[in-house]
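Alpha-1,4 glucan phosphorylase, pasting as requested.
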Amino acid sequence: MAHFKDNITADSLAERALFHLKYSRGKDLRSATTFDKMMCFSHVVRDMAVDGFIATQRQYLDTDVRRVNYLSMEYLIGKMLANNVVALGIVNESREALKQLDITVEEILELDVEAGLGNGGLGRLAACYLDSLATMELPAYGYGIRYEHGIFRQEFENGWQKERPDEWLALGYPWELVRPEYTLPVCVYGRVKKNFQPGKGASDVWEDFQVFEAVPFDVPIIGYGVNTVNMLRLWKSQPAEGFRLDVFNQGDYVRAVEEKNWAENVSKVLYPSDYTYAGKELRLIQEYFLASCSVRDIIRRYRKTHSDFTKFAEKNVVQLNDTHPTLAIVELMRVLHDEERIPWDKAWEITTSTFCYTNHTLLAEALEKWTVDLLQRVLPRHMQIIFEINHRFLQKVEINHPGEGELMRKVSLIEEGAHKQVRMANLCVIGSSKVNGVSALHSELLKTETMPEFDKVYPGKFTNVTNGITHRRWLIKANPELSELISDQIGEEWMKDLSKLEGFQDAASKRTVQKRFMEIKRAKKVELCETIKELTGYLVSPDSVFDVQIKRLHMYKRQLLKAMHIIHLYNTIKKNPKATVQSKTFIFAAKAAPAYLIAKSVIKLINTMAEVINNDVDVAGRLKVVFLPDYNVSLAEKIIPAADISEQISTAGLEASGTGNMKLSLNGALTVGTWDGANIEIAQHVGEDNIFIFGNRTEDLAVLRRKGYNPWSYVDKSEDLQAVLEAIRDNIFDRTQPDLFKDLYNEVTEHGDFYFYLADYEEYIKCNEEVDKLYAKPSKWAEKAILNVARMGWFSSDRSIQDYCNDIWYLERTPVDMTADIL
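Structure tokens follow.
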């Protein structure tokens, strides 16, 4: 079968780049900037993607395949240019072509734009899944929002996090195709009235609503080494009627653009702050915006080949990535029942057969809820439908479980109280055919702890799909030197099928491979040292252990526990400056939600510690602490290959899965972690001898909670812990502000230590001592690190997607033929 790469040469790429330089950028080589060259070469690669995209869509349409529609509020796709060049297999050709433009690949890659479409693991997972779906030649569409600003650009001011606008679209984005012909109206507010028709009874009609529009932008997602190019469709909001010339001419300049500003705000920022009523309202509208546009776009595409809805669920599966797109369930019901006049029971059967739901959290505060009052105000007809869904559902529960009032209360969509709320997770479960967790432990706890009543009502509906990562970005692209070492040992088949990576474990005991592996690791550390110097000004040694904790800043993820360990080491040195302490560089990168004040205090603490420890003559370089600002995919690609230690120290039972743990292990970092999330499965695959597990397990913490956990009992019996806590309480790092970190001290003492820092502290210190002992044996360390790499094949997102296909989606592989003329 013909492929993209056929007939592609360095000369043809250079010729096409010069064409775009002239006709897309309006420049010649003499006047072109580095940015011009990056943009024009990006358009060359996009041209190739468009060829595949057109062929792929034609294949799907002609064969009327079953498709998955992946709805997610976040897609952290990272920089696309290098990723797409790798996927197309034109790395060498690109390097040679760019020489003809008098520039290097490295120079233009530095200027590629990172899309501000996500914040954390949810978005990185979605991006990995899109990559795998295309590579595995599976019919798929991603749906999201084209945020004008990403979550925020993080800067540090006097050690405190400061949020700045993320202007990622300011210079244009070469990877998108705007589709104004598919613009959709979106309706909000208004009221519902009864419409009586003779002989037909009364129907509910939504009217007097406010209308704005959604414009789709498509980003091609290129499969690795195949012809499939799937699509990520991102919606941008705009006013249905923009500038009011009549109002402007009357002199009311503010009101003239009021509607325009209001409509554009919907896709302005990822996760607008919901600490005000207006913020909550905007976030709800944002979620409905994604749900409504995506559902109606799926219907539009379905109608190309179908005149009724009898096969809608057969041809479409909609995967809800967390609860943010939940309103898609209600929107499909509204369209089917109100607009298509399909009877309720049949519409509900179609809806529940179409949707599936991925749960990402066990934290009660993270299970989304919306007040009934707000929903009635913004989406009055949808609130009616939710009430009707709940009424019919509870009737069935009462029939099947008579007299179980507590069960009814727990599974109801409506949470009673002073302000009634709609439980979106409950709606997802009721409205979906399958519900999955994202690691074995998480899925089990979902059934036994978080939603046991639903497991009783719907036996068999809950299942598990452990998360995965795409090695194409996180190993082949991020660490080409390690990839080359692997290929030298076992060939290149692993690049397409990561399960083949297991062959690399035979090389783990070879001294020559160990030596080369550690040389590669050090080279990556040298590169990261330059980044650290550039971003923080700190000089760190590549010969120190790089101890890495990179993830969203949350108290349950316990960055503060790592800080406590560093204070322990610092205290040890201050007591005895000649003490033997392993030279370590502690690397943090994380963003805290703008209103999450205690998490921001952790950032301030670590930055304050860094300023003192990094300049203390007693420490003499044995400890360095760096907090890298504005953590994103590009920064992760630099940190992960350089890491020696991967910190995965969440409170047991609270991390759904994690994917950073997989990326770090895949690049040869040894995990220090709790028995939580996917750490468990990593331990099972790499071997418990090749991972450092510490701390209380989920069942242990349940016992502590039941007995009445007292954090002071741990403080009283440990002088070391007392000293660490006092260092935080009294702020020994800045005596001029002694009360600065009292909130952190109180969090783990007076306020009950909800996340069990103190219960796990002693084991954590001992665990790190074991790490140091192993690092003192370079050959043994290298062997274990290589075994981590070799045994991570199961954690490919390709395997995750195959699990979805086998148990939830039932998709069929659909190869794309590039031989036919695409015009």
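Note for the archive: The mean pLDDT is 95.
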